[in-house]
Amino acid sequence: MGAAAPALLPTQLTWSHLLELVLLFLALYVLLRFLRRTVAGGVFRGPAMLVWILILGLFIGLRAANLDVLNALVEKAIPVFIIAMVVTFQTEIRHGVARLGEARFLRFLLRGRGPRKVDTRPVDEIAGACEQFSQRRVGALIAIERNIDLTTWIDSGVPMDAIIRRETMDTIFSTETVLHDGALVIRGGRIAAAGCLLPLTERPKLARSYGTRHRAAIGLSEQSDAVVIVVSEETGKINLVERGEMIPVRDIEWMKGYLNTVFADRQGVQPMPRAVAP
Length: 278
Prior knowledge:
The chain is of the alpha+beta class. The chain has helices at residues 15-36, 48-64, 68-88, 90-98, 104-111, 122-136, 151-154, 166-172, 212-223, 252-267; strands at 140-144, 158-163, 183-187, 190-196, 227-231, 238-242, 245-249.
């Protein structure tokens, strides 16, 4: 009598299997949503995703080909890789945990449906302040946070959490104050901090006419999706900087339209068509 056939693995999905799939999906979704707003999260966006797919395919291929030595080396490297990822994202993890209380669903559960904050026309205040800075040759550097978290640079300055007013910005960038050399960072329609230290661009062929403010504006825009406004102290010229590109502002009304689009994107409102710089 022949040997009994081996028992087949169950092929039917049970409620426990479905629950496990749902939990794994939710964990992956939350992780990707968290990384989407971080600078280091760039390793999971765009072409970098192809590299991760290739690494996963290589791991599966080694398992399928029964290459014991290579497979053992890969399995031994996984704990080291996990530790390396924790070290790489330690800043983002710390800031993410610190900002859990700002999550919308937590605010909804703890406070319920409160009245929506009234918009204080931040675009008019910013544009008006920059126009005054330009006329008086006052240097200024203003960064507007969008999707990528700027907490790393906000923490380098003096926290404020103030309403956006041109009088406040005029005081901050006055040469008599200790905050005028740093950047002012706007988050969620409010001044989050002033005197912030921004990263300088590492472009070797940047024009020598660009000073530290311009290099800091370009540097932050290269590492995030923030829009940065820089007013030159020497010439009074206003420039908008986005994704490493310097856009000269020759008309304040055009600047207001541009910033309205930026704030509409930030608040989840349908944005108007973006104007072309003159």
